[in-house]
Amino acid sequence: MSDSLNLTLVQTDNIWMNNLTNLENLDKQLNNIKTDIIVLPEMFSTGFCMEPSKIAETMDGLSVLWMLKTSKRLNCAVCGSLSIQEKNKYYNRFLFVTPNGIEATYDKKHLFTFGKEDEVYTPGKKLTTIHYKGWKIKPFVCYDLRFPVWSRNTNHYDLALYVANWPANRSFAWNSLLTARAIENMSYVVAVNRIGVDGNEIKYHGDSKVIDPLGETLIDLKESKTVRQISLKINHLEKVRDKFKFLEDKDEFKFKD
Question: Matching Gene3D superfamilies, A to Z (predicted)?
Answer without folding.
Answer: Carbon-nitrogen hydrolase (3.60.110.10)
